[in-house]
Amino acid sequence: MTRREITPEDFGSKGVSYGSCGLYAAVGEVDLIASIMAAKELQSRGTFGAGVLIKGIYPEYANMYALHIMYRNRHVAADLERHITEHKIGLRHIGEMESLVKPQMYRKYTLPELRRYFVEPPTPDEMLRREHTDNPDIYVRRLVEKFNTRNIGKARIFSSGKNVGVFITAGGLQTTMDAYNLEQYVRQRISAVMMHMRWPTSIVDSGVWWGIHPISFLNSHMIHNGDLSSAPSNAQGIEAAGITPMIGTDSEAMLLELDDLLVKRNFDYQHIEWAMCQMFPQEEDLLSEEARKAYMRVVKENPTLSRYKMSGPSSFVSIIRKNGLARVISGRDRDGLRQLWMGRSNDGKTVIWSSEEKCIYQTSYLMSKEFRAINCEPGKITVFELKDNGEVHGAFGETLQE
Questions:
Q1: DSSP state, 279?
Q2: What's the average model confidence in pLDDT over 148-174?
Q3: d(Cα 386, Cα 127) in Å, to the nearest integer?
Q4: Measured between alpha carbons, how far is 335 from 311 in angstroms, rounded to an integer?
Q5: If DSSP codes are grouped into helix, strand and coil, which group holds residue 1?
């Protein structure tokens, strides 16, 4: 069997099948194999387009940014790779370029060129000269945004965080596991895993490969089940906030909004919930006078944030890092049109989310742990704080207390 090049049809919307999104995430004390086996239960609903995020897989390079890049083909890779390896993008490449998959995988599956680079930013003076910031995360994010927007349809950095990796294919979850040999990471100390099955519902011109979840930039990540009826409003909101989208889907807009609210605007969790899960008028009437005034300031009196609403069938799990601590934020649409099941182990060390309840109990069986589970409340968010060592603590909205 010879290798076939990726064609425009592979990146387009032709052949996108029907089906809901399969969504699964686990944080804290994570068993990678148990999580993957449980998530496989969702394959029939999720059809094709499967992605896996694993946090804690590059401990030897924990202080470097791991770039996972897809190029449409080898010719595009040859043209663009020098921007990384010759430091033309403004990052210092450490070591050698590595292939994300073994050569035989290109013969077995239809894949773009998939490569990995470990990089670090230059000196603070050079960062200031290039991007007017000496914050490494802001600097790297700006360079990732520029690379992705300049090379839409040709190449994309789809994973760029520290000690975390995203792996995606246009096949099923088993294809993604096989192509990247994900079992090689089972002995690592993993603190989070996110999985999603189904191509994006809002296909962009650059095609299905560009929008497969988890959507990730630096240490902010998102998996989303649903199709936002508020997508035009969300797009207008991030544009008004001066935020650059790199993909163009409704799921990416949600991640960019959450990142903006938590990291840039420094909102507390209650204000984030108000912005993302805006209330019905009858609910506003039940607020105290003080709370109602605060709600109006956040949602009604700010023309940008008034567009940060999540309407239509939707549920999501996100991980956003701020000040050295990861926040795991999950939510469900106010109408309750999409399920989002959450389970926590009786020892308090593991939290799981899934679009179906059975996956929580499948994980429970495989991990030999007892779990309590609920269907998350519509229009509410839940926030856990996740330390690098895997410790997880409920921070906001948890109803499964230890």
A1: P
A2: 92
A3: 29
A4: 8
A5: coil
* CA distance linking residue 201 with residue 260, whole number of Å: 23
Concatenated DSSP letters of 127-182:
HHHHHS---HHHHHHHHHHHHHHHTTTTEEEEE--BSEEEEEESS-HHHHHHHHTG
C-alpha–C-alpha distance, residues 354 and 43, integer Å: 12
Q: What is the DSSP letter of 280?
A: P
Give the pLDDT confidence score for residue 208 in this predicted structure.
60
Measured between alpha carbons, how far is 186 from 387 in angstroms, rounded to an integer?
Answer: 20
Phi, psi dihedrals of residue 147, rounded to the nearest 5°: -60, -45
Query: d(Cα 179, Cα 314) in Å, to the nearest integer?
Result: 30
- What pTM was estimated for this model as a whole? 0.91
Give tens-digit pLDDT for 294-335: 999 988 888 898 899 888 888 999 999 999 899 999 999 988
Confirm if 204 and 249 have CB atoms less than 8 A apart. yes
Model confidence over 119-130: pLDDT tens digits? 999 999 999 999
C-alpha torsion angle, residues 116, 142, 158, 354 (rounded to 10) = 130
Residue with tokens 């969790």: 269
How does residue 379 score in pLDDT terms, banded at 50, 70 and 90? very high
Q: Is the dihedral of CA 15, 19, 25, 31 positive or negative?
A: negative
C-alpha separations of 210 from 43, 86, 121, 163 in Å = 20, 25, 25, 22
The pLDDT, as a whole number, for residue 122 is: 94
Section 336-358 average pLDDT:
93
